[in-house]
Design goal:
This protein has 5 helices and 9 strands. Helix 1 links the parallel strand 1 and strand 2.
Amino acid sequence: MHPIKRTILVTGASSGIGRAIAKNLLQQGHVVIGTSRNCRQFGTTHKNFSFIEIDLSLLDQISTKIKTIEKTHPELDTVIFSAGYGQFGSLEQFSCHQIEQLITVNFTSQAVITRALIPGLKRKAHSNLIYIGSEAALKGSRKGSIYCASKFALRGFTQALREECGNSSIRISLINPGMVKTAFFESLTFLPGDDESHALLPEDIAETVNYILNSNQNMVIDEINLNPANKVIKFKTPS
């Protein structure tokens, strides 16, 4: 059976996991719309790829942007939510603004995008919503109170939404990766160890997305947890 060709929105498609997912989908012959806060990061073109600039921290702008996407791509039937960032530290080290921004980008914006698109997706014969979560959604960790909270919220959201959409054509899945070798760690004080077994690759997540999309349409893959073979964290030397 040939895979269904999709029109897919990928958030955070200009780097890291989102970029790997977008590239993999294009290789599979899908049409991809990528979003980024800065579209100058898209360095290459492809006949099936287009992009739109969205800053997920600005919630009041999201609905207008999504309406534009729906108007230009009425065949849109899949969304992959891969945008997000990490910030870690003791709770008292966070300002109120930092707490708000982290929760907004990692969770609230994704709920807002879903809310805007879900009526149209319910009318499609086949549709998928795939959220890239984190191992931080499975267990709280020291210095991760706000980041974990954002990912726990996303996990609870997908579980409840799956129940809401149980009688529709929408399949809702959550992927929770452990540490992935991306620029995610550039602004952090730690990163995965040096051995290749210490971190997943962005392409691993992209292949998992591909597996979900190509699975039996009568089956819902609720949640997939992915981890490197060996979890090793290396702390950066202060400059």
